[in-house]
Known about the structure:
Number of domains: 1
Strand order of the largest sheet: 6-3-2-1-9
Order of helices and strands: HEHEEEEEHEEE
Radius of gyration: 22 Å
Low-confidence stretches: 151-161
Distance between the termini: 54 Å
Largest sheet: 5 strands, antiparallel
Structural class: alpha+beta
Number of helices: 3
Helix content: 10-25%
Shape: elongated
Mean pLDDT: 84
Amino acid sequence: MRTPAVLAFALALSTLPAHAKDPxxxxxxxxxxxAYMSPSQQPGEETDAPKLVEKSLGLSGxxxxxxxxxxxxxxxxxxxxxxxxxxxxxxxDIQGVNPDDIIMFHIHCGPPGVLGPIIVDFGADExxxxxxxxxxxxxxxxxxxxxxxxxMPKGLKPALPESCPAELGFPTQTKTIAGLEYLARxxxxxxxxxxxxxxxxxxxxxxxxxxxx
Length: 213
């Protein structure tokens, strides 16, 4: 026979409010990350870019470069991850850049000051410049937008991953929005905008961190 104390405890538990949430909230609530882009975050000047690498990758600039401290380009980017990690929404606003000069726009993985591989290519289908209207870009990302390398180029050293690892230091590639958010949480993602004058390092860069209230 149960004691009065046990019965009282059971009754108290039964009256507690339920903590389970509506599963549909996973697609309509978000975790937000942001980046303020500037030329100063680039790890080098375009004039210092290794010429052999530029040539092999076809990244030789077609316009005169401008020192980082003299560029007027600035930008803001935000990524909102649905909490069920099924998709993410990207919003970007750039200033001081002619959209016609944009040749590439990516999200890379890498800590501040380090050039890292591409994980999202915003110009893979029709060109990066066409994604911007009046300096603004808005789009949706799903797993299919993750850059995944199936065939490693000949001669590539295994220590130099061509796509972003699921965990820095491990060879497994990130394939999902969940993996992208995991890297964002670690502060190892960045936006990088490339122009005709600044092709190798890029026009401006923005390290991505959790958004501040």
